[in-house]
Amino acid sequence: MNCYEIQENGYTGQVWPSANFAKQFYCYSVSRTPQRERLFDGVAGDIAEAVSTADEQGKLTNTGTAAGVAEVQAPFEVVDMGPFDNNRNDVRAVNDSGQAAGVSLNSTTGRIEAFVQEDGKRSPLGTLGGSFSIANGINNRGEVVGGSLTEGDNSFHGFLLRGSRLYDLNSLMEPSAGWEIIQAISINNRGEILGIGCQDGRDRIVLLRPKS
Question: What element of type H or E holds 92?
Fold first, then answer.
């Protein structure tokens, strides 16, 4: 089961519903209730082209080639944002202002680091003390989430960039809850963060909601 992105009204992803998971999956959207709405079935080979994002009204903005999915009618302009090298040079998210977030080589430190790109210029974000970081999501306030190795490369933790400061998400959690946030995947304009957390040795999909 994968979750890809969170918006104000829900998130989207994939789930394999049966033991036959190698051959069949379906994509879903989840409202804030949370009730999954099945969008379409897929088969092995369609996974890479499956629905991965929704707009602010919950409408699909990226469709695949699986049966039952209408062909996109609107023309698109292609913008070349550079070579792709998974987890070494990649743009993973973009907001409504055109700011992008991803991962690339920081020539100053020699490390592979998360970055924010604006007007064609990339600004490295650093790490949580380790040798690697990656940005996965950015909202319209310019807040960025992702993951980073910690000092000594001992752990991998989710992070939040707010302003010019990189926060370990675990430093923003109640220690008594017993969660370790190991990855942040997406952030919406409410500041809600979709991520992966570990509790009692089990990895779980988690939603971090700011306290009012």
Answer: strand 90-94
**Nearest of 6, 1, 62 to residue 195 by alpha carbon:** 6
Asked if 199 and 176 count as a contact pair (C-beta separation under 8 A), the reply is no
**Token duo for residue 23:** 């051959």
Angle ∠(145,46,1) on CA atoms, nearest 5: 45
pLDDT grade, residue 75 (50/70/90)? confident
The span from the CA of 123 to the CA of 209, in Å, is 27
What distances in angstroms separate CA 70 from CA 11, 62, 63, one per listed residue?
A: 21, 11, 8
Confidence of residue 49 (pLDDT cuts 50, 70, 90): very low
What length is written for the chain?
Answer: 212
